[in-house]
Write a structure and sequence with these properties.
Layout lengths: L1 H14 L10 H4 L7 H12 L16 H17 L3 H17 L8 E4 L4 E2 L5 H13 L3 E6 L26 H19 L10 E5 L4 H9 L11 E5 L3 E2 L1 E3 L16 E2 L5 H8 L2 H7 L4 E6 L5 H15 L3 E6 L9 E7 L4 E6 L1 H10 L18 E9 H11 L5 E3 L10 E6 L1 E3 L14 E5 L2 H4 L7 H6 L9 H18 L3 E2 L3 E5 L2 E5 L2 E4 L7 H7 E2 L3 E2 L4 E5 L3 E9 L1 E6 L3 E10 L2 E6 L9 H4 L3 E7 L1 E5 L3 E5 L2
Parallel strand pairs: 2-17, 3-4, 3-9, 4-5, 10-17, 18-23, 21-24, 22-25, 23-25, 24-26, 25-27, 26-30, 27-31
Antiparallel strand pairs: 1-11, 6-8, 7-15, 9-13, 10-13, 11-12, 14-16, 19-20, 28-29
Bound molecules: uridine 5'-triphosphate.
Length: 626
C-alpha cells in the first residue's frame, strides 16, 4: 500500500497536481494507486468539470479494476476525438443548454434575404454548358460520402449504402456512387486529354455503427471497380451524452463504467478531413474541389456535373445543391443572413426556424410562396461543393470545428430536467457560418425530379406522410429513378407512356417504365442525346437496362423487357420492335418476414418473366434487331 501511495505521489508531482484535489471524491481517491499518470490526469479533468458522480459507485481497489481502466480508455477517446478536448465539450454543452433553457434565438439580430445563385433548367443550352464544364473539372475533384448515420428512421438492419437503389438491377447505393465517380473520372480524363491526374479519390465517413460493414461491403465486391487505394475510410467517434443543464455526463444504464454516447452528426466530417491530413494530400495532388454527399440519394449524380460546372464557372467557394421549395415544406431554406454588426452568412435555415425568423423581421406572411409558386428560398438538399484551397485555409483557423446545437427534450416547462439524455450535435452544412463576408457562397437549384429522392423513412412512417409530401422511402426512392430516366428520355423525343398510380406498402406512387442505365452509358444529357436516335417508344409496362459505354438505341419500339450488356470496346446498335412478357412488379407485404428485408421494405418484387437480353462480350461493331 505504501509503495502504491508513493508511486501515486510521484505520478501526481510529475503531473504538477498538488493538494487534496480528489478528497471530495473518496471512491476515486482510494483507486488512484491503480491508475496510470494519463488516467489520473483524465480523472482530474473530470473532477474539474464537475463530474464527481461518475466515481460515486466505484468500489475498493481490487474490485472491477479492469472495468475502471476501460472507463478511462473511453474517457481518453472522448477527450482525443473532440477538437480542444472533453473539457471544451462540457463547457460548450453548458453554454448551449443555458441558451436553450433561456429560449435564445440563434438568429437574433439577423435579417434574412434571398442569396444569389444559379437556377438551372434541365436540358437547355445553359444546363449543357455547365454539364460539360463540370465533367471537365471532375478530374480535379475529390468526393466525400458521409455514411456514419444510424438511419433510425429507416429502421433497416443493414447499412444504408448497401440497400439497392433500385431493384431492376439490384445495384446498391455504394456501387452506384462508385460507378458514377469512375465514369466521371474517365469522361473527364478524355475531355482534358489526360492532362490531370486520373484517379478521383473517395473518402467515406463511417461510425462505429457502420464502419466494419462498409469495409466488408467494399472488400467483398472488389471496391466496385475502384482501386482500394482510391478509397479512404474515416471513422467518426460518438460524443458523450448529458443528463442535465450542468452538463453532467450520463452513465450508461447497462454498464456503470461507461459513459453513454450518441452520434455527433455529419458536421464531424470537416474536423476528420482536416485532422487526417487528407485535404493536404489532395491539395498537393493538384485537386480543386471537394464534393460532399449523403448515403441514399439515387438521383444525386444526375445533378453533379452541372453543379460542379456552376462552381467552377462562378468560382464559388461553397456551392449548395438545392431544389425548388414549397413554402412550409419540411426542408431547410438556403438563406442570406445579415447582422447589424456587419456579420453576414449564407446558410441553411431549418424549415421550422425560417417561418418565425421571417415573421420577426418584417415579412408579415412568413414562409410563403412567391410569384413562381415556390418559396424564394431554395430548398437545401445537403450536398455541398467546396473549393479546396479556401476550405483548407478556413479549417486551419477552426480545426474543422463546426458550430454545434443541442436539442434536449424537457420533462416540463421549467426546463430543468430531460426526458432522456441529450448531446451536442453539428451539421455539415453549417460550415459557412464562420466564413468571412468576402467568401463566395452560392447555390445551384435543380429540378427535384432530377436531383433529389433520399431513402430515409420506414414503410409505416412513409405511409403516414400526408398526401402531396414526399415519402422518402425505399419505394419512392426507387420509383424516382424510373421517373427521372423516363423524363430524360422524353426530353430527347422518346415516346414514353404516362405512369400508372399504384400503392405499395400503403404509399401511392407513380410507376413509370423501369428504365435504368449505368453511369458509363450516360452521365450527362449530351451523352443521352448522342446515344438515342430515330423514333423510339417505350410502353409503361416495359423495363430497359443499358449497360455499356457504346450502346446506341435507334428506332426502338419496346413493349416488354430489354437488357443490353456490352464491353467497353464494343459498339452495339439496338432497335426495332421488341415485344415479350417482360418483368412484372408483384406486391409484397412489408410484414412478411419470409421475404428479404431489402425487398419487402419497398413493397414489391420483380418477377422476371421474359426478356430480350443481349450480352456482347467481344470488341467490334454489331447491330441487333429482333
Ligand atoms: P440523416 O439525416 O439521414 O440521419 O443523415 P441518419 O442518422 O443517417 O438517420 P436517422 O436520422 O437516424 O434516421 C444524413 C447523412 O449524414 C450521415 C448519414 O449517414 C447520411 O448520409 N450522418 C449522419 C453521418 O455521417 N454521421 C452522423 O452522425 C449522422
Amino acid at each position: 500500500m505504501a509503495s502504491e501511495l508513493g508511486s501515486t505521489t510521484e505520478k501526481l508531482s510529475q503531473l504538477g497536481i498538488n493538494g487534496d484535489w480528489a478528497a471530495s471524491t473518496p471512491n476515486l481517491q482510494k483507486n488512484l494507486g491503480i491508475l496510470s499518470s494519463h488516467q489520473i490526469a483524465l480523472a482530474k479533468l473530470l473532477l474539474d468539470m464537475g463530474q464527481t458522480h461518475l466515481f460515486e459507485h466505484w468500489p475498493e481497489p481490487g474490485i472491477d479494476d479492469e472495468e475502471k481502466k476501460s472507463f478511462f480508455d473511453q474517457v481518453s477517446r472522448l477527450n482525443a476525438s473532440y477538437p480542444r478536448g472533453l473539457g471544451a465539450y462540457i463547457q460548450n454543452a453548458r453554454r448551449l443548454l443555458a441558451d436553450s433553457k433561456a429560449g435564445k434565438n440563434p438568429f437574433d439580430g439577423f435579417t434574412p434575404s434571398v442569396p444569389s445563385g444559379e437556377v438551372l433548367k434541365f436540358g437547355d443550352d445553359n444546363f449543357a454548358k455547365f454539364e460539360e464544364a463540370g465533367v471537365r473539372e471532375s478530374c480535379k475533384a475529390a468526393f466525400v460520402l458521409v455514411a456514419g448515420g444510424l438511419g433510425e428512421r429507416l429502421g433497416y438492419n443493414g447499412i444504408k449504402v448497401a440497400l439497392p437503389s433500385e431493384s431492376t438491377t439490384g445495384t446498391c447505393f455504394l456501387q452506384h456512387y462508385i460507378e458514377s465517380i469512375l465514369a466521371l473520372q474517365e469522361a473527364s480524363c478524355k475531355l482534358t486529354e489526360g492532362q490531370s491526374q486520373t484517379e478521383v479519390p473517395l473518402a467515406i465517413m463511417t461510425s462505429d455503427d457502420t464502419h466494419s460493414r462498409t469495409l466488408e461491403l467494399l472488400e467483398s465486391n472488389a471496391y466496385f471497380g475502384m482501386k482500394p487505394s482510391q478509397v479512404k475510410l474515416l471513422k467518426q467517434e460518438k460524443v458523450a451524452c448529458l443528463d442535465d443543464n450542468d452538463g453532467r455526463l450520463a452513465v450508461d444504464a447497462k454498464n456503470k463504467y461507461r459513459i453513454q454516447t450518441k452520434p455527433h452528426g455529419h458536421g464531424d466530417v470537416h474536423a476528420l478531413l482536416y485532422s487526417s491530413g487528407l485535404l493536404n494530400v489532395w491539395h498537393d495532388a493538384g485537386l480543386k474541389w471537394v464534393l460532399f454527399f449523403q448515403d441514399t440519394n439515387g438521383l444525386l449524380f444526375n445533378a453533379i456535373p452541372a453543379a460542379l460546372g456552376v462552381s467552377s464557372s462562378k468560382q464559388y467557394h461553397v456551392n449548395s445543391l438545392a431544389v425548388p421549395r414549397k413554402a412550409k415544406e419540411s426542408i431547410g431554406g438556403i438563406t442570406k443572413l445579415t447582422h447589424a454588426d456587419g456579420r453576414m452568412m449564407v446558410i441553411n435555415v431549418e424549415y421550422n426556424q425560417l417561418d418565425p425568423l421571417l415573421r420577426a423581421t418584417g415579412y408579415a406572411d412568413g414562409d410563403a410562396n412567391c410569384e413562381t409558386g415556390y418559396s424564394p428560398f431554395p430548398g437545401n438538399i445537403n450536398q455541398l461543393i467546396l473549393e479546396l484551397d479556401p476550405y483548407i485555409k478556413e479549417l486551419k483557423k477552426t480545426g474543422g470545428a463546426i458550430e454545434e446545437f443541442v436539442n434536449p427534450k424537457y420533462k416540463d416547462s421549467s426546463k430543468t430536467s430531460f426526458k432522456s439524455s441529450t448531446r451536442l450535435e453539428c451539421m455539415m452544412q453549417d460550415y459557412p457560418k464562420t466564413l468571412p463576408p468576402s467568401a463566395r457562397v452560392g447555390f445551384t437549384v435543380m429540378d427535384k425530379w432530377l436531383a433529389y429522392a433520399p431513402v430515409k423513412n420506414n414503410p409505416e412512417d412513409a405511409a403516414r406522410v400526408p398526401k402531396g409530401n414526399p415519402n422518402h422511402s425505399a419505394t419512392s426512392g426507387e420509383m424516382a429513378i424510373y421517373r427521372a430516366h423516363s423524363l430524360i428520355l422524353r426530353k430527347v423525343g422518346v415516346q414514353i407512356d404516362d405512369p400508372v398510380l399504384q400503392v405499395f406498402n400503403g404509399q401511392e406512387v407513380e410507376v413509370w417504365s423501369r428504365i435504368v442505365w449505368k453511369p458509363k452509358w450516360a452521365l450527362t444529357f449530351a451523352d443521352v442525346k448522342n446515344k438515342i436516335g430515330g423514333s423510339c417508344s417505350i410502353s409503361q409496362r416495359s423495363t430497359m437496362v443499358l449497360n455499356g459505354p457504346n450502346v446506341f438505341i435507334e428506332d426502338l419500339s419496346l413493349d416488354g423487357a430489354l437488357i443490353v450488356n456490352s464491353v467497353e470496346d464494343a459498339e452495339v446498335k439496338v432497335g426495332g420492335p421488341v415485344q415479350n412478357k417482360g418483368w412484372v412488379l408483384e406486391q409484397v407485404d412489408y410484414k412478411d418476414a419470409s421475404v428479404p428485408e431489402e425487398i419487402r421494405t419497398r413493397g414489391f418484387k420483380i418477377n422476371k418473366i421474359e426478356q430480350w437480353e443481349l450480352n456482347y462480350t467481344k470488341p467490334g461493331s454489331v447491330s441487333f434487331k429482333p
